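Appendix B. One record, verbatim.
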Amino acid sequence: MPAIVDKEKCSGCENCVDVCPTEAISMEDDIAVVDIDECTDCAACVDECPEEAITLDE
């Protein structure tokens, strides 16, 4: 269940990039992008996102 970013909600704050323990999140065109192969489903980014733009795929 990798993290999914809602591109419409993402503000590009990079909080998720800073908190990701596996460095699975990067920024492309000021939008967070998750590398599904590196994501460990820890949900740290979900908790950190002020825009509630990140969810875990269920």
